[in-house]
Queue: 3 jobs
Job 1
Amino acid sequence: MNENRDRLRIAVQKSGRLSDQSLDLLRRAGLVFRSSRDRLFLYGENMPVDVLLVRDDDIPGLLVEGSCELGIVGRNVLDEQRLAGADAPAPAELQALGFGSCRLAIAVPDNGLIKNVTDLAGLRIATSYPALLAEWLRKQSIDAEVVLLNGSVEIAPRLGKAHAICDLVSSGATLAANQLHELVTVMRSEAVLASSPRAQNAATAAQIERLCARIGGAQSGDG
Ligand code: PRP
Ligand code: ZN
Ligand code: MG
């Protein structure tokens, strides 16, 4: 652990699809929190474990730099970081958490011009997951241009920025609202517990193991 602290830190999405269920899981694992005034930091009252509420995309970086020992994040976010970071140390997936299931999918406008995966050749695809998309395109031998957008990817086709998008789909409501539909699934994802790639001292490693066991226990109690 960081030499300056003797408490574990777990990073959780501040506001988004995984936020509520992530905190629920930690509560069911037995953690009792006190919220800070800015509500970005939850102090663990009954265990030496604090929760940081952050943007989900920042979670892999916090784990790599060692600011947090654990994180709850979508597998897609972890895998994107691993691919983009090449040989750099990457956070490990400790366990799948059984919620937040979704898919990273390529979606196209409902106008019917793009019918097959092969129609994507030579087109622009907007995404917040450029490394995952590029790897998938390479495996499919499709030569398309990857356009990075960090938010509101679903409006890219209407803006003329891209012909298609590659984004997470859960209920499908976002696609439907933007006159888009799925063409193909790139990967399946769900919330996972991830750990920092930094070496931990024995006391911290034991603390992490205890917390993981509690989280595992809270999960198996799920209906
Ligand atoms: C994803 C995706 C869409 C939405 C799709 O964002 O970018 O905005 O979920 O869900 P739906 O199919 O149920 O409409 P997410 O909340 O995962 O993360 P973000 O805010 O970090 O983009
Ligand atoms: Zn995000
Ligand atoms: Mg989104």
Job 2
Amino acid sequence: LGGSISRALQQMSNATIIDEKVLNDCLNEITRALLQSDVQFKLVRDMQTNIKKIVNLDDLAAGHNKRRIIQQAVFNELCKILDPGKPAFAPKKGKASVVMFVGLQGSGKTTTCTKYAFYHQKKGWKPALVCADTFRAGAFDQLKQNATKAKIPFYGSYMESDPVKIAVEGVDRFRKENCDLIIVDTSGRHKQEAALFEEMRQVSEATKPDLVIFVMDSSIGQAAFDQAQAFKQSVAVGAVIITKMDGHAKGGGALSAVAATKSPVIFIGTGEHMDEFEVFDVKPFVSRLLGMGDISGFMDKIHEVVPMDQQPELLQKLSEGNFTLRIMYEQFQNILKMGPIGQVFSMLPGFSSELMPKGREKESQAKIKQLDSSNPKLMNDSRMMRIARGSGRQIRDVMEMMEEYKRLAKIWSKMKGLKIPKKGEMSAL
Ligand code: GDP
Ligand code: MG
């Protein structure tokens, strides 16, 4: 998406005269890219209309930075769609809140319930999980396993078939035990059917949740709006969590879910594991959606993990695009501390996940560790042969490492010319 949008903006910038036609062509191109990213058709069309109103053709003609003006307008419009105007209900530590999770089967509810509980537990809350999914065989076992792993109290039954009864019993029990975050996991069935929505309505009526969270799989594409709306019509959805953002989905469905539920996205799921869960933040999300990268997030990480006295030099090198093998090697321990390396790189502008395939981060990490700090530009065949012999490896291994380095170098080269903001003066654009 980022690529197509930059291309459209570039083409427009190259035009000598920016008239209505050139602007329209550009906006159509952007529209196409957004649709391909699963942003709902109506949202895209409204956005196009708004941008035309905002962008003043005379300003564009007067030689202002056209690309930047339009990019900023697209950015602002997307941010606006993701902001429903009021924050989600925020549970308070120490005061019992009931949070009910709804969503289709397979959307990631049970996994996300546990992540949500675990996230709060780490911050000193006393969460508890209630399994009110009596529809799917094995639902209780799954929740039990997750909860046990995270050491979170849970409630459920193998015998009882009435989800309302279990939900009420569980909530009552954990209220008595002074839990402050009582999380109710529900059934999803496999499609939107009347029986499911009726069940959600009943569980909600009986447990009186303070917050209903709609969980949506990011890969459902254009179906997002209708699905979110269907849930909103049966229960009082107050927040959204988008799952499987680590996959191929482009994330445009998040905009539809917010528009349909008039509720904000509060977290995103980025993997199957308990800690692959991130607080949702509008601006970095839109930056990434547009392929502009999340420089401020990346810089925050750098400031967080690289020792203070090494920061200026590293930042300088990064901005020169001179991230050499030696620096990479020297800084490797720090970079590892930044988290799974793929996640860190995904914050960079123009990053494509193909450069660092998921599941191969460990491999890449191990390979970089093996690399010595030699200058790869001088790496010719005989040198490779020598290194192979010297380290007791096959020449193929050395070549593989060089490929790995080239891939990384390609990523780092994107940093070239990057303006490095100082801590505290970071912007998404
Ligand atoms: P439920 O039917 O809505 O309760 O969905 P589950 O929690 O059982 O999840 C369905 C599948 O999606 C499971 O295999 C989960 O491991 C997987 N899953 C859930 N969230 C994520 C995520 O953020 N990323 C990935 N890759 N998989 C996820
Ligand atoms: Mg489930």
Job 3
Amino acid sequence: GSISRREAIKAVTAHSTPECATAQAPLAELFGVNVFDKSAMKDRLPKSVFKKISATIDEGIALDPTIADVVANAMKDWAIEKGASHYAHVFYPLTGFTAEKHDSFLEPDASGASLAEFQGKTLLQGEPDASSFPNGGLRGTFEARGYTGWDVTSPAYILENPAGNTLCIPTVFISWTGEALDKKTPLLRSQQAMSKQAMRLLKLFGHNDVDTVVSYAGAEQEYFLIDEHFYYARPDIMTTSRTLFGAKPSKGQEFDDHYFGAIPDRVLGFMIDLDRELFKHGIPSKTRHNEVAPGQFELAPVFERSVLAHDHQQLMMTIMKKVAENHGMTCLLHEKPFAGVNGSGKHVNFSLGNSNQGNLLNPGDTPHENVQFLVFCAAIIRGVHKYGGLLRASVASASNDHRLGANEAPPAIISIFLGEQLMDVFDQIAKGGATESKESGVLELGVDSLPPMKADPGDRNRTSPFAFTGNRFEFRAPGSNQSISDPMVAINTILADSIDFLATELETLTADGTEFNAAVQTVLQKVITDHGAVIFNGDGYADAWQEEAAARGLKNLRTTVDAVPFMAEKENEDLFEKYGVLSARELEARKDVILEQYALTILVEAKETAEIAKTMILPAALRYQGELAGIAVSVKAAGLDATNPLLTDLSTAVTALGTSLASLEKGIEAFHGESELEESTYALETLIPAMAEVRVAADTLESLVADDLWPLPTYNEMLTIL
Ligand code: ADP
Ligand code: MG
């Protein structure tokens, strides 16, 4: 049950900050102490075994199963020294959450408990009951077998708990037919597909010695913090992770005084502790600051291989929630916990690279001469244009719909921002050939004591969903609570397709006798002519862009229900099948799971809305109405004018709440659908508007009912008391 608003406020104001852990080890010494990483392996494994496992981690060479026993044994010894009593295969089901199945290292029998052998096969494969994870019809409940398989490329780690530690082993999760039931398997497959095509392209540029091309990801994570007492006083946040009610605060973010403002002490304490925990797990947390809204913050790690970044991102969200709890706060990762207040996203920065050449998206100072870079950029431009609908679908969820397609960054239309310098180079290419690059300027500060600062060759554009930011692209549409797997799978796969296309074009032209540089020019010109429509450097929030984008033929998929069916269109089905990332069945299943989750999310929100309206808001309003009516009777009896406009307004709002509540309840009652698509369409078209009506009436009541009777902590209270 929840606590009352009064109790919450009292408890929050009595909060005292936990003592700062100054005695703890320096941050640098903590990095990776809980990780069975390469340095731990090097210390503990025979040289030949270490060499083999390194080759698997770094170059994706298949793991030699004969070394599994040796690795498992070393890992177990390491984990037990770290206080672990159990081990868990960690996997990433289609819900987007992280799942764990724990087993004990100890084997209890009649004579007591002895240390179990942790064999190679136990490390390599597990078998959790898969029947309670969504699978989109890939498996009937009678065929419950699912397997977890060790992903050697992601290191095992220790998860601490005051009561005992656990060795966590990152795995993939597949059905007994070998179909992917998780977010990790397609990510690994897409990385491999992209790498294969990128190596092919690099060969054309004379780089024959490249072993692999890696996609990198760095995800900036936005989040809110509220005091835990408010959390426990808001049943809507407890069940749905967002507020379903709440009038706009008198002071919102109009003053722009929170962004990059001084971090409140209590929050800073949390952030310092969080960094320490993340470091222990080898997660390279780097940047922290306030975000736009009050109570909103951001954390950015240093980018890593996207497969590893994915696992780290999942673990990071878990650790954020845990550390917040230790500090008496709740960390909200929902995309829109507070209506009318800035929402939270997860900007996924990505690039490609390898150990020989570094970052392949680095333009250098003269991008017009860096043809290899331009070809990779062209691949991205083509991919984003051709598969914009797929990219949109890859970030679709009930919660992210509150950002995309609503009046918030970024819009649901997927376009690319190139920045001034690169745009100019592609403009020249379109006209026949690039001969110069705009130089980056020097900022004149007008203060003699300050050295001149170098300006970037292009400004930023905050409204673009897909922006070139100097040496990487930033996909800004993913949701704050989302796994980065879906967007990275989409990006890797469309890159595989585009790079394949460009490499084939170049091969064909050169085979016909065209000189290589001329062939590159032809291909670049073709891409910019055919796909330039996706480039947009203007204001993505403006209404004019909605019209222009439509004229350019760009999709504007506002809701999940609009976007997700696109996933399984023939074109996308072919794409995923061609590169071995997802079979048609796997793709179809994923589509159904997203829609099912969407419908369920909204159904739960609708039920919670009805319950709070009925059991908390309506009673408060009726009590107040009774009080005012009683006063009117006394006032009249005293021979005075008893007309009270407040009572009239209140009664109108009470009636409105009653009517809208009745129709919401009817809507919930009638929830149905023959398919996931029908159910989610019903949720979109019937439940969402019905909830909105209840909310309007309830929020009106919040501004009318006496403050001492109002049951829910207000936006002002939750967002500003920390
Ligand atoms: P900004 O506020 O400019 O977006 P942040 O420092 O908040 O920058 O975050 C930038 C993110 O981009 C970080 O996670 C960073 O590691 C990541 N990043 C930087 N360079 C690359 C790259 N080459 N590839 C992928 N991600 C990168
Ligand atoms: Mg940032």
